[in-house]
Every structure is written in C-alpha cells, then in structure tokens.
Amino acid sequence: MKQKHLEAYMDTAIRFSQCSTAKRLKVGCIAVKNNKIISIGYNGTPNGSDSDVCEDENNKTLPCVIHAEMNMISKLAKGNESSEGCTVFITHSPCIECAKLIFQSGIKTVYYNEEYRDDAGLDFLEYYGVHVIKLKRT
Fold it and tell me: What residue numbers bound the domain in which 113 lies?
C-alpha cells in the first residue's frame, strides 16, 4: 500500500474518532480490504441506548461502552464483507480484549496512531503474528 494511502486511511480513522461521544478518549477504527474501506467504528454507547454518556462522574469509562474495534468488527458481522485478511487503522493501539477480537477475526495488519496506556494488546498481536505498525499522524 502506498504511503499516501496509509496516511489517508489513518486520517479517516482520526476523523471518525471525532464522532465518538466519549470525553476522555475518542477512538476511531476503519477496516480496509482490496484498497476499499469495508467498515468503520468508533467508541460509544450501544445502538439505541438512552444515553450517549461514556464516562461516570469520576471520568472512568462506563462498562456499557463499546470500543471502536468492536463496533467495526460487529458491523462487518452484519454485512457481506469478511474481516479475513484485512488491514485496520486505529487511532490508538488496541486494548487486550480488542486485540483478541482482531486476531480471531483474521485481521492481518494493524496500523495505529498513538499508544494506548497498556501495551498488552500490542504484545498479544505481535506474539500471534499480526503485523503491528505505528503510523503517527497529527
């Protein structure tokens, strides 16, 4: 994939992160296959939720919040596209739970813009052979 396309895809993930209603950390994620965006996700509350609040009064993420990667993969599960062999672009490196889901979904490459506070997700992906690449955008 050409550098200009890598940057454009990451810029798209960053742009979609702004759709999140989270106040503390807005995360965006896109899946690309055969040079086409096949799914988009960002962190937020479940579809149809009565509230779009993502944090409690202590600024901790509420348990109901769905991560960007989970949203992106669940949208794929509802459609005709497969995540097998695709590349994802995420604004922040995945947490361990999302890393497990990424691996089990057959995603082969993960580009991320910034590190998440815990690198267990990156360690997991690298251990299981998923290509992980930092692609810093501003």
Answer: 3-134
CATH assignment of the domain containing 27: 3.40.140.10
Q: Among residues 76, 113, 118, 127, which one has the least CA distance to residue 96?
A: 118
Q: What is the pLDDT of residues 22-43, one digit of tens each?
A: 998 999 999 999 999 999 999 9
For the annotated catalytic residues, the residue numbers are: 69
pTM: 0.93
Helix count (H) and strand count (E) of the chain?
Answer: 4, 5
Q: What is the pLDDT of residue 51?
A: 84
Count of the separate structural domains present in the chain: 1
Higher-scoring residue by pLDDT: 59, 98: 98
DSSP per-residue letters across 49-99: -S----B-TTSPBPTTPBPHHHHHHHHHHHSS---TT-EEEEEEPPPHHHH
In terms of Cβ atoms closer than 10 Å to its own Cβ (0-12, 13-18, 19+), residue 111 is buried
Contact 28, 14 (CB under 8 A): yes
